[in-house]
Amino acid sequence: MGKIFYLIGKSCAGKDSLYNILIKDDELNLYPVIRYTTRPIRDGETDGESYHFVDIEEYSKFKRSGKIIEEQVYHTVHGDWYYFTADDGTLDIENRNYLAIGVLESFAGTREYYGKDRVLPIYIELDDGERLMRALIREKLPENGRYAEMCRRFLSDANDFREERIKELGITDDVRFENDDLENCAKRIKSWILKSIR
Questions:
Q1: End-to-end C-alpha distance for the chain, whole angstroms
Q2: For 100-145, what is each residue's pLDDT tens digit?
Q3: From the CA atom positions of the chain, what is the Rg in Å?
Q4: What are residue 85's phi and psi, to 5 degrees?
Q5: 173: number of CA atoms within 13 Å, CB side?
Q6: Which of 12, 127, 138, 146 is most buried (CB neighbours < 10 A)?
Q7: 187: which residues sit within 8 A by CB, 6+ positions away?
Q8: Helix ranges restricted to H, the chain
C-alpha cells in the first residue's frame, strides 16, 4: 500500500528546496504529486513540474466533472488564483509512494480523500524573521518585485498556520522539522520517511 508524504509549511520555509532534494533521492523512490494552479507561470518554472498551469476554463471543467480532490483560492492583488489537486488518473497509490507539497488545507483535503493512513504530514518550520528575509531577497530579483503579494502571503500565513489548526490536523512534534540547515533537515526527513515505508 502506497503513501503520500505531504510537505507543509509557511511561505519561504524551504519546502520547494527540500522537495527537490527528496524527490531526486533514489533510495526514497518517491513519485511527484503535481497540483494544478490558475496563477501565471513564473520565470524558472516548467509546466508539469512544479504545477500544471491551467486557465479558469480548465479549472471549471475539473470542477464540473467532480475530479477536484482539494482546492484553495487566494484573492491576490493580481486577481483570484486557484490551486488544486485533481483525480486525473496519474496516481497509482496502491503501488507507489509519493511526495506532495502544499499548505495545511491542501494536506487536509488530500488526507480526507485518500485516508489518514495513506497521507502523512511533514511540517517544515523556520523562524518568521528568516522567512521574511528570504522572501524579500527573492522579490528583489529583477524578474520578481511582487512586494504587495509577498506581504499578503506573509500575513496570510499567520492565520492559515495557526497552532490550534496544526494540532487539530494531528500534526505532532515527530513530524515537525526545523529547516535551520537545508541538508541536515533533508537528512532528518529522509530518515523519517524510510522508517515510515519499511
A1: 11
A2: 998 899 999 999 999 999 999 999 998 888 877 876 777 677 767 6
A3: 16
A4: -110, 135
A5: 0
A6: 12
A7: none
A8: 15-23, 56-64, 104-114, 128-139, 147-160, 163-168, 182-197
